[in-house]
Amino acid sequence: MSDSLGEVGVAHWDPGQYRQFAGPRLRPALDLMDRVVVNAPQRIVDLGCGTGDVTRILAERWPAAEVTGIDASPEMLAEARATPSRILWRQGDATTWCAETPVDLIYCNAVLHWLPEHHRLLPRLLTSLAPHGGLAIQMPLSWDLPSHRLMREVLATGGPDGRPLGSAELRAGLTRSPVARADEYYSLLAPRSRTVDIWQTEYLQVLAGEDPVLAWVKGAGLRPVLHGLDPDSRGDFLAAYRARLAEAYPRRPDGATLYPFTRLFIVATV
Fold it and tell me: pLDDT averaged over consecutive 10-residue blocks of the chain (270 residues)?
């Protein structure tokens, strides 16, 4: 089971960029929530809560529960706290977080693919659950998408005279998928859980505007690349990457750009 770029997960996030596609990003979070089988949870943790949009929906779905949103990004938490609510907001590192009191639901939407050592992380999260509690996870399966393959190709050949861009360390950090196969997660969780439900969904995302796929990946997956490039290299990268994306994802006559995007879902109960 491969590791992810955990060190870049806490780099500065731009809430405005991330929210540019709030609708398509929200849909898989709601699909995950609909498959949670925990009965009347009393304590809920949204681990990697970001701007708190989904955390507030969790609080509405289970109004009797104590809901806590945890995120490593101070920028995201500042955005979350800007809207008054009964939710407890805490800054914390999901790689080391453990519940002080067992919780009934740990909800992890689009966060664990940033973190390393899933073979240790997921079993540890299960130990923070109360009896009959649940762990709900959604992760993007973006590694093999043209948008992400092109990202790696441009890093490897997009410099002057076809030279690589960025450091060898940056490129090495993108050499393997941060998300394992579904069957590996089943093998990891099944011996430790009462039930395990795993599925994949491809969303045909309909995007609008100029360079919408580039705008999408800037909000999440492209962050470690841009963070790791110096200003001159960043400009070279973006120019080449923008052109390659326009070829891979052409705008349709009606102005829309179609961006198929697959996600992996896991719901385990103890």
Answer: 36 50 82 95 97 96 97 93 96 94 97 94 98 98 96 91 89 88 98 98 96 91 89 92 97 97 98
Tell me the DSSP string of 146-176: HHHHHHHHHHHH-SGGG---S-HHHHHTTSS
As to burial, measured by CB atoms within 10 angstroms (0-12 exposed, 13-18 middle, 19+ buried), residue 11 is: middle
Residue 122: enclosing H or E segment and its boundaries? helix 118-126
| Kind plus residue range of the DSSP H or E element containing 131 | strand 129-140
Distance CA 142, CA 259 (A): 11
| Complete domains list, the chain, with CATH | 6-269 (3.40.50.150)
Give the predicted TM-score (pTM) of the model: 0.89
